[in-house]
Amino acid sequence: MGERKLATVRKIRDIQPIPNADAIECAFIGGWKVVVAKKDNFKVGDRVVYIEVDSVLPERSEFEFLRPRKFRIKTIKLRKQVSQGLVMPMSILSKDANKYKGEQDVTDELKIKLYEAPGGSKSKDSIPLPTGKFKMYMMRFKWFRKYWYKHTKPVIFPGWIKGTSQIRIQNMFRDYPKMAKMKWTATEKLDGQSSTFYIDSHDKVGLCSRKIGIAPKSSNNWTFIYNKYDLSFVVRLIKQETKAQTVVIQGEICGPGIQGNKYKLEEKELFIYAVKVDSKIYDYEAMKKVAADYDLGVVPLVHSGITLPDDMVDTVEMSKGISKILKRRREGLVFKSGDLSFKVINPAFLLKDEE
After folding, report:
1. Do 216 and 67 sit in the same domain of this protein?
2. What band does 117 get if pLDDT is binned at 50, 70 and 90?
3. Based on CB atoms within 10 Å of each CB, which residue in 184, 279, 323, 354 is the most buried?
4. Residue 185: closest CA among 287, 324, 87, 78
5. What angle do CA 337, 341, 346 make, to 5 degrees?
6. Which pLDDT belongs to residue 284?
7. Distances (CA, A) of 53 to 71, 173, 306
8. In this structure, are 174 and 147 located in the same domain?
9. Domain final residue, candidates 154, 177, 206
């Protein structure tokens, strides 16, 4: 799935004034817009360190101004200008600036971590329950449960399955001119919990959250959906009917207790956004048919067979709009063209809903 590059060496490609702002201006880093202080004297072409939204910075003197925000980088708005990320001078790095080549990843050097919502990516849900009556009886005792969770290997996210995380369009600035000429399908990005359900070439059926494998007998939102839609049967039947080796279904779980239930659903539901049978990636119509055949939900279609605007800024504007599930601002869009995909997050959604 790869690790996200939270901090990279970049060049400032442009600087624009902000109306009615004397002390700040807007710097362009790739496809990102970041508000910077004029007193820092950044110039077009300067090499800087760009730190992405969702980064948690270490407690260093250079980052002390972030203490009120618990050292977390968030989307903010200053003088009506949306700012996503943080721009810092190269002097915060340990080596001479000339020793950093290209868009070098400096996340580890700066000891920057990805923000994890309460609960994080580590979960007891990935630990299989014991088999046998005696061990199940022993699970009644706290000391045994602690021992079991510590020493039992977790279910892993299969390496042959592409993770559900999508790259943000702003990080694809160099490739954008070529991408703009391609044909794309755009679906609504839903704000829920990512999930993966699969059957492998050995007929092993499994389920995963965004990052980890989930033990089928655990009790959580993923196993609820797994059982509600009988997804073990679904992936087995698709494999049998298509004579495939592997089947993967991925989707977003939304409903009560998940992200504030933004869509006011009465119970947890699955909205699928990807179906892959062996190496074949289903297009939206084929995926919609799978959803209809097995009584699954599907992410709403917003655009089909379109090319992108020449300017990336206009594509970001396309992410704005109202959800097709409930009358409220949507989280954004996910664009797909074959096996290529990226997400465009609605800046207004981040400003309103980012906690």
Report:
1. no
2. low
3. 184
4. 287
5. 120
6. 96
7. 11, 17, 29
8. no
9. 154
Name the residue among 229, 240, 305, 211 with its Cα closest to residue 271: 229
The verdict on residue 164 lying in a domain is: no
- Examine the pLDDT at 230 and tell me if it is beyond 90: yes
Q: Alpha-carbon distance 319 to 211, whole Å?
A: 25
- Return the CATH number at 42: 2.40.50
Tokens of 140: 């009644």
Contact in structure between 170 and 201 (CB atoms under 8 Å): no
Spatial distance between the Cα atoms of 80 and 238, rounded to a whole number of angstroms: 50
Quote the domain boundaries for residue 32.
7-114
Structure tokens at 169: 């369009």
Structure tokens at 266: 């009465």
Which two structure tokens, joined as six digits, stand for 132?
């046998």
Residue 162 domain-assigned?
A: no
Work out the average pLDDT over 249-270: 96
**Structural contact between residues 335 and 344, judged by C-beta atoms closer than 8 angstroms:** yes
Which secondary-structure segment (H or E) carries 347? helix 347-353
Q: Give me the residues paired with residue 8 across strands.
A: 50, 105
332's torsion region: left (phi>0), alpha (psi -120 to 50) or beta?
left
Q: Are residues 103 and 239 in the same domain?
A: no
- Whether 114 has a pLDDT exceeding 50, the answer reads yes
**Contacting residues for 225 by C-beta, under 8 A, at least 6 apart:** 195, 231, 253, 268, 269, 270
Kindly report the CATH number assigned to the domain that includes residue 217: 3.30.470.30
74-99 pLDDT, tens digit per residue, is 999 898 898 999 999 999 998 887 88
Which of 98, 126, 154 is a domain's end point?
154
Reported for 98-104, long-range contacts at CB under 8 A and 24+ positions apart, including other chains, are 100/9, 100/47, 102/9, 103/8, 103/9, 103/10, 104/8, 104/9
Instruction: Identify whether residues 341 and 207 lie together within a single domain.
Output: yes
